[in-house]
Specification:
The strands form two sheets. The protein has a five-stranded antiparallel β-sheet with strand order 7-6-5-4-8. The protein has a three-stranded mixed β-sheet with strand order 1-2-3. By secondary structure, the protein is an alpha+beta fold. 23% of the residues lie in helices and 40% in strands.
């Protein structure tokens, strides 16, 4: 079974869901970030509990060969969308999209399936296959 499936099982045993994993470098430190979601929100205690359970598992099944720091967190209100499931769970939310050609779009995510998305913009509904999307994220309008 692959590592992400095992990580997801540990998270689900704590009542949450795996959103994504990422490896980032910040200030010369490599971070293995595990992003989780939970209905009602992610609290610090939940992140700590999952970290305590996940850490020994990753000691035996490391996600990479180099030294890293484990970080468990929520993807946040403004989160990156990279998988079909991310888009499907964000239907109705405001999104910013950069297409492969560099064009930038803003709108409300109207629909998403396994092939692509439909975005409701000021100009009308526009559909794009995932292959045309470069970077996508939800955004919140602060008033």
């Amino acid at each position: 079974m692959n590592l992400e499936v095992q990580i997801a099982k540990i998270i689900e045993a704590n009542g949450a869901f795996l959103y994504d994993t990422e490896i980032v470098t910040e200030f010369d430190e490599t971070i293995f970030r595990v992003l989780i979601t939970k209905v009602g929100g992610v609290k610090l205690d939940l992140c700590a509990n999952i970290s305590h359970e996940l850490s020994p598992f990753l000691d035996v099944h490391p996600p990479m060969s180099e030294r890293y720091r484990l970080e468990i967190s929520s993807p946040g209100i403004e989160r990156k969308l990279s998988k079909a499931l991310h888009f499907q769970n964000a239907i109705g939310e405001k999104v910013k999209i950069k297409l492969g050609a560099g064009q930038k779009l803003k709108g409300t995510l109207k629909s998403a399936d396994n092939q692509g998305i439909t975005l409701e913009t000021k100009a009308g509904d526009e559909s794009y296959p995932y292959s045309e999307l470069n970077t996508c994220k939800t955004y919140f309008e602060w008033n």
